[in-house]
Design goal:
heterotrimer; A alpha/beta (149); B mainly alpha (289); C mainly alpha (643); A: 149 residues; alpha/beta; Rossmann fold; globular; C: 643 residues; 2% strand; transmembrane helix (chain B); Energy-conserving hydrogenase (Ferredoxin), subunit B (chain B); ComplexI_Subunit1 (chain B); membrane (chain B); transmembrane (chain B)
């Protein structure tokens, strides 16, 4: 069993979001939802994080940041897109200045819908991400063994 | 040094991380309860470290791992000396060296957050170091020796004689445990102005080493606290010191962070008012040596 | 006795020969040869006096008389030379010629007194002075070797500074000779003469470049050391004409103990304080930073300042248990605390070194003023370790300056990657200065214990221990942040820089090895040099015997730490972890790695971060002012307590 499942540390980035989803995401940390029960910690630092939670529709400026943050996260890692904008651009989809969806710039693993996404949905998305994370961890371990051999 | 202390010292090396992890786990649960949360499982710190060991490690420079080895090595030495019943002052010096190696690891990455974190960590070291020395000097004056094995067998009144020193020690313990209001070198909650300060650019195995080092450090500090009450015997002294140790959690949750200059000023004043004064009036209280 | 005479006389001869050398090539060769000879003889002397009781040498009556005459004549010549140099003084430096005249007057009064004490033993060697000789010959010699190449670069870079290298090397060797004189002379008049020779040499060497600043600083050094010289001459007058003790011999002075010898001892202590740059006399040492780096290294590590503390440690049995001695300790304590704090403010590496030198000497003075077995032990080991590590650091900073073109600590960022060897040597020097398990820390450790057992007055010991605790904290801060700069990875790929020249390399590597070995073998140095000295003092009843030795397990643990510091890098080098590299965290705004980020308005900005210098917390100027007033009062208190 991988311990990744017991201690998922998340990094939260608002890529040009309206902050609606961000508020909901932070609500998960409050006593009502208390995700620390599950060992989830909001690290605020890509180098410590396992799960990248991104909100917003991503424009040119935030694209560079999202890419940098993703590159600085150590493997294995997963990306969770949160909210309508992060999924597809939402109501900004047709705006000239947005990419419209995180998957335009990063490989997204889990999509959490909603405008704004509800805390329950976000927690559910993270739990789904844990399954993928564990798969990746196994894969990673196999790769390392092969490199050594 | 007897066979017993040898076992104790080896026990520290082997079981130290486990005890330290339990302390950290209780700390997290207590904090959660104070915030009306349920909090993580008791073994959460262990899960965290095991996970970090599973993860890849990204480094800014390869040498950062070397400095972390130094950090852990001197931490082990420091605790080993303490639990062997050997020299308290020497244990303190080793602890300091260990802290400096951690700062070097952060400095070596040369990112602004790590730099500020390690500069602040050094500043905090400067703040608490005199008080820790006062503790050792206080024990020397009441028991006539820097040796832990002598201090443990000191007079039952030593905690009263060293009342001021104990207050001062509890004060700097807050700094040493990186608790608010002195959590300015590596904030507990990463999403703040300093990110994770001194550990910002450490990841994977490197970060796990730091965590393990901190577990050892917690045990060492608990050991120091225990020394004040040690003459009363394990059954009384250990619960008292554990209660006092976790009183820091309350302080942590009820105080806002101070700036480095006030942290430095306040801790030096506390050292003078409680530590030095206590040493000066010690002859009046009467010492047993 | 031959090696002593050789060590005192040969540097003068060698200096003259080197000054007369036809070209730079020959001069370099002769310097190396002479240094090798001096070092060899001092090592032989040290080996032969390991663990020995003090030996005193009486010269034949005729010889001694001849030497006496020669030294009197040389003293007068020295005074004339100093007066001649005074032609360049400013009006506000009027006191310098006055002090010279005063001091010469006092000396003449002593020389031609109606009756003067007979000197039985003019020279001596004990294990302490043998250790000093080892430091002077070894460390001082390496500095001379370093200077060969350094001065070549210095002259090449320095526009408009006349090339006076022949005289420069003559002065260096004269300096070494005078230092040997100080540690071997039992005849106080001779000792005083050598003392004044070091004053002259330091003045000349500090003002070497001939710039206005250098000359002014040279005169300041001269003036402050002359104050000490006058006090020393005053002590000689007292010993010749005063009531009570009537002697010209150092050992008799020390043997007389505090009841008889305290008055001359406090007067000589003033001279010792001035020479070892303690507050309130410390400003000359900071001014000496204008001199070429080998000079700073020489003044700070093995000579000059060490002459001051050498004499204070010698006189420690007289101070033991007296209030005057406690005041002396407090002067050292104030110096230690204040200069450690001020060093935090400094960005210039040489100034950091200068303040830390003053601070460490303060620590030695603290020990000397207490004068128990343990503090003398600590003081002597401090002298040894400080000499080695500080010489290494000074020469290291000098070489680094030539390599990177700056002595600003901020510019040394990433030296571990740009010049690994150079950085490793600097790191060993820095570690040697303050960290466990190196020697300096060992001495501090002993001091804590020793201070607490002081019983001159209630609370005295606690006061000294508290000063030591509070002074050590900033020490830790400023050394660590310097190391932090050295180990920081450069944000952009470094450009290739020149290599370390051979002579400088030899000196630096030897000093690094010595720093390491001195720590590893310190129990041996303790057994061979320190214990015999303190034991002799205990045997003659001057200081109380003390049972506390550093327990063996402490030494074992220290050795484990030292071994760890050595094996960890080795293990790392052998089994390097294979991790992927990534740039530093910049909130995801990185543009080119960790070197630049996207700032406001989308502009690319360079990352810059500087160390903390706490200038808003530690205010150098007012702090220094209070410290000067305080220490001046303490000097008066010490004199008052002595007289």
């Amino acid at each position: 069993m991988s311990f990744l499942k017991k201690s998922p540390w998340v990094l939260h980035y608002a890529a040009t979001s309206c902050n609606g989803c961000d508020i909901e995401l932070l609500a998960c940390l409050t006593p009502l939802y208390d995700v620390e029960r599950l060992g989830i910690v909001n690290t605020g630092n890509p180098k410590h994080a396992d799960i990248f939670l991104v909100t917003g529709s991503v424009n040119e400026e935030s694209r560079k940041v999202v890419e940098n943050l993703y590159a600085q996260m150590p493997d294995p890692k997963v990306v969770v897109a949160i909210g309508a904008c992060a999924l597809s651009g939402g109501i900004f989809r047709d705006a000239y200045n947005v990419y419209g969806g995180i998957d335009q710039v990063l490989p997204v693993d889990v999509y959490v819908p909603g405008c704004a996404a509800r805390p329950e949905a976000i927690i559910d998305g993270v739990v789904q991400a844990l399954g993928i994370l564990e798969e990746r961890a196994k894969e990673r371990k196999r790769q390392r063994r092969m490199v050594r051999a | 040094m007897s066979a017993y202390t040898w076992w104790l010292a080896i026990g520290f090396l082997v079981l130290g991380p486990l005890v330290g992890a339990l302390l950290a786990g209780i700390d997290r649960i207590l904090t959660a309860r104070m915030q009306s949360r349920k909090g993580p499982p008791l073994l959460q710190p262990v899960y965290d470290v095991l996970k970090l060991l599973e993860k890849d490690t990204l480094v800014v420079t390869h040498l950062q791992s070397l400095y972390l080895w130094g950090f852990l090595f001197f931490m082990l030495i420091s605790g080993f000396i303490l639990f062997l019943g050997s020299d308290l002052l020497l244990s303190l010096f080793a602890l300091t060296v260990s802290g400096i190696f951690l700062c070097l690891a952060a400095y070596s990455t040369n990112s602004p957050y790590s730099n500020i974190g390690s500069a602040r960590e050094l500043m905090l070291t400067m703040a608490y170091e005199p008080m820790l020395i006062m503790v050792a000097l206080g024990f020397f004056l009441v028991s006539g020796s820097f040796r832990v094995s002598d201090i443990v067998q000191g007079s039952p009144w030593q905690v009263l004689q060293l009342g001021g020193i104990l207050i001062g020690f509890l004060f700097v313990l807050t700094i040493k445990l990186r608790k608010s209001p002195f959590d300015l070198s590596a904030s507990h909650h990463g999403h703040q102005e300093l990110v994770k300060g001194i550990t910002t650019d450490l990841s994977g195995t490197d970060l796990a080493l730091v965590e393990i080092g901190h577990w050892y450090e917690n045990v060492i500090l608990l050991g120091w606290l225990y020394l004040f009450f040690a003459p009363w015997g394990l059954a009384v002294a250990l619960p008292i010191s554990i209660v006092l140790f976790f009183a820091e959690v309350l302080v942590d949750n009820t105080h806002a962070r101070l700036t480095w200059s006030s942290a430095l000023r306040v801790s030096w004043w506390v050292t003078v008012l409680f530590g030095v004064t206590n040493l000066l009036v010690l002859p009046l209280i009467g010492h047993s040596s | 006795m031959f090696p002593i005479i050789f060590l005192m006389g040969f540097p003068l001869v060698a200096g003259l020969a080197i000054a007369a050398a036809p070209d730079a090539e020959t001069r370099g060769r002769w310097v190396r040869l002479s240094v090798a000879l001096i070092a060899l003889v001092s090592v032989l002397l040290a080996l032969s006096s390991m663990g020995e009781a003090p030996r005193f040498f009486a010269l034949g009556e005729g010889t001694q008389h001849g030497f006496d005459l020669a030294i009197t004549a040389a003293s007068l010549a020295l005074a004339l030379v100093l007066l001649y140099f005074c032609r360049r003084i400013r009006p506000r430096e009027w006191y310098i010629p006055v002090l010279i005249l005063l001091q010469t007057g006092l000396m003449l009064a002593v020389e031609f007194a109606a009756e003067h004490p007979e000197v039985e033993h003019a020279l001596y060697v004990d294990s302490f002075s043998a250790l000093m000789a080892l430091i002077i010959g070894g460390v001082g010699g390496l500095i001379c070797i370093h200077a060969i190449r350094y001065m070549q670069d210095y002259q090449a870079h320095a526009e408009g500074i006349s090339d006076r290298r022949p005289a420069f090397f003559f002065m260096l060797f004269l300096f070494l000779g005078a230092m040997f004189g100080i540690v071997f002379a039992n005849h106080l008049l001779w000792l005083f003469f050598f003392w004044e020779v070091t004053t002259l040499c330091s003045f000349w060497l500090i003002s070497y470049s001939g710039t206005e600043e250098a000359v002014r600083n040279g005169f300041r050094a001269l003036g402050l050391n002359l104050v000490g010289g006058v006090a020393f001459a005053g002590a000689l007058v007292w010993l010749t004409m005063g009531p009570g003790l009537h002697t010209w011999e150092l050992d008799r002075l020390v043997d007389a103990g505090s009841t008889l010898a305290l008055i001359p001892a406090v007067l000589i202590a003033v001279a010792g304080l001035a020479k070892s740059a303690q507050l309130p006399f410390s400003s000359w040492l900071l001014g000496a930073m204008v001199a070429p780096t080998p000079i700073s290294a020489l003044l700070h590590s093995s000579t000059m300042v060490k002459a001051g503390v050498f004499l204070l440690v010698k006189l420690a049995p007289v101070f033991h248990g007296t209030f005057a001695g406690f005041s002396l300790s407090l002067i050292g304590g104030v110096t230690f605390l204040v200069t450690s704090l001020i060093a935090v403010n400094q960005r210039n590496a040489k100034l950091v070194l200068a303040y830390s030198t003053i601070a460490n000497l303060g620590l030695i003075v603290m020990c000397a003023g207490i004068g128990t077995t343990a503090t003398l032990w600590a003081a002597i080991l401090l002298i040894l370790f400080h000499a080695v590590a500080k010489a290494l650091l000074f020469l290291g900073v000098g070489t680094t300056e030539h390599l990177i073109g700056s002595r600003d600590i901020e510019d040394m960022e990433g030296l571990v990657y740009r010049h690994p060897t150079m950085a490793a040597m600097l790191l060993v020097g820095v570690l040697g200065m303050f960290l466990a398990p190196f020697g300096m820390l060992l001495s501090k450790y002993t001091c804590f214990q020793a201070f607490l057992t002081v019983d001159v007055m209630p609370g005295a010991g606690v006061l000294l221990a508290a000063i030591l605790a509070f002074g050590s904290a900033p020490t830790l801060f400023f050394w660590s942040k310097w190391m932090g700069k050295l180990v920081a990875v450069p944000r952009s790929a470094p450009s290739p820089e020149p290599k370390i020249p051979r002579d400088e390399w030899i000196a630096l590597v030897s000093l690094t090895v010595v720093t390491y070995v001195a720590c590893a073998l310190f129990p041996l140095a303790d057994l061979a040099f320190v214990q015999p000295y303190t034991q002799a003092l205990v045997d003659s009843g001057l200081i109380p015997a003390s049972a506390d030795r550093i327990p063996w397990e402490t030494i074992v643990l220290m050795s484990v730490m030292l071994a760890g510091l050595f094996t960890l890098p080795l293990a790392f080098w052998l089994r390097r972890p294979q991790y992927a590299e990534v740039s530093g965290y910049l909130s995801g705004a990185n543009v080119s790695g960790g070197a630049s980020f996207r700032g406001a308005m989308g502009l690319e900005r360079q990352v810059e971060s500087r160390s903390y210098y706490l200038q808003s917390f530690i205010h150098e100027v007012p702090l220094m002012r209070y410290a000067l007033i305080g220490s001046a009062l303490l000097v008066i208190l010490m004199l008052g307590a002595g007289l």
